Amino acid sequence: MNPHALPLAHRTGFLVGSVIDSSTALLAEQEHDIVRFAMGSPAPEAIPTKILAELGEEAIGADAPDAFDYAATHGDPALRSALLSQLSGTSDATSDDRLVITSGGMQGLDLAYKLFVDPGDLVAVESPTYTNGTATALSYEAALLEVPVDEDGMQLDALVDGVEQAGRRPKVIYTVPTFQNPSGVTMSLARRRRLLDLAREWGSVVLDDDPYGMLGFSDHGLPTLHELAAGDPLVFSVRTFSKTVAPGLRVGWVDADPSLRQLLIHAKQAMDTCTNLPAQRLLAAFLREGYLDEHLRAQRSRYAARKQAMHEALTEHFAGRAHWTDPTGGFFLWLTFLDAIDTQELFEVALAQGVAFIPGNAFSPQGRFPHALRLCFASSTPERIAQGVARLHRAVDLLAAA
After folding, report:
1. Is the preceding omega at residue 128 within 30 degrees of 0, hence cis?
2. Considering 217, 225, 245, 335, which has the largest number of Cβ atoms within 10 A of its Cβ?
3. What is this structure's pTM?
């Protein structure tokens, strides 16, 4: 044995990281102009920077002795109160004993897997699905069952077939039900109800990850899994302000059965003690002063126009060469080439041409989507979208010629 070898834990073999998050550093290293369809982040102009800055000192209470102190692990009272008021009357209306404030949505996913998954447990996930969602499950040594997605979300017949073939029930079913990452599709009402029925039959926890639900382009949204569950403890809902307000604040929340609150507090105390208190108070003021509703209306209109611009650009450049989803909200659409174009190889060519995306295989632990890719329309103007899709077209032609 190498005397200098480190005694790494067995779980390190399951730490796969995130292609999406790694792209941030990669893009920062580029010196030429790049249209960025890769990261799922609001555009800089979509973040209410000026309002947050104006609220800052008074909201945080800079003169108060506890302004930069530790917060209660389950969340600062000011934010919990403001959030409860904001959610009242919506599909995510809830009660204080169900809320725990988290350090972004990712901590909510981590808490869920920490509470429910033992090594080897079966976790059913959409395919394609959010890279970090599966990476977190793998970090707790879960066995993943990939379930196909179509225009109505997770294919539940395929889920049933997969469970039968596995010979055991899933401990957790992970879903991004609304404007799914990466496909942009929304799970139908019938499937939402059937998913809950299956979870009750199997005793499976539904991990309801819904960062984009407030960003629908119309007012005709479906009830959330949280609402349909009507308090069923098998539904564990994860939400975040990263897509609706600002990702850098790193504030989200989980909505879970009250019986889990103390366990969640214990688990979170072993992670970070508490969520950033100044950020919580800044968000509390943002909600309390009524800014969120107006902000969301503006962003829905902005993102709808950008989705339409991307749809038109793709039709111009890729009609007959690819097909893509047509989301009614959120940040993303999913493009699949009709020819066998390796999007991992395309990534390097496209980056050189000045456009970035995330290759399809990043969204499947088994690498099921070599000819697909995810495009984020939210973070670029319509003009930049047109430019970026034209660059993507040029990259595809260059790769095909090579």
Report:
1. yes
2. 225
3. 0.94
The rounded mean pLDDT for the chain is 94
**The pairing of beta strand 205-209 with beta strand 172-175:** parallel
The angle subtended at Cα 43 by Cα 41 and Cα 45, nearest 5°, is: 150
Widest pairwise Cα distance in the chain:
66
Q: How far apart are CA 156 and CA 356, in angstroms?
A: 33
3-state secondary structure of 216: strand
CB atoms within 10 A of CB 59: 20
From CA 224, how far away is CA 209, in angstroms rounded? 10
Query: Within 10 Å of residue 331's Cβ, how many Cβ atoms?
Result: 26
CA distances 72 to 101, 180, 272, 276, Å, are: 9, 32, 11, 10
For the stretch 210-269, pLDDT in tens is: 999 999 998 778 999 999 999 999 999 999 999 999 999 999 999 999 999 999 999 999
Count how many residues are written for the chain.
Answer: 402
Per DSSP, 329 falls in state B
Beta-carbon contacts of 72 under 8 Å, excluding residues fewer than 6 positions away, are 274
Residue owning tokens 């179509």 = 150
pLDDT in tens, 96-153: 999 999 999 999 999 999 999 999 999 999 999 999 999 999 999 999 999 999 999 9
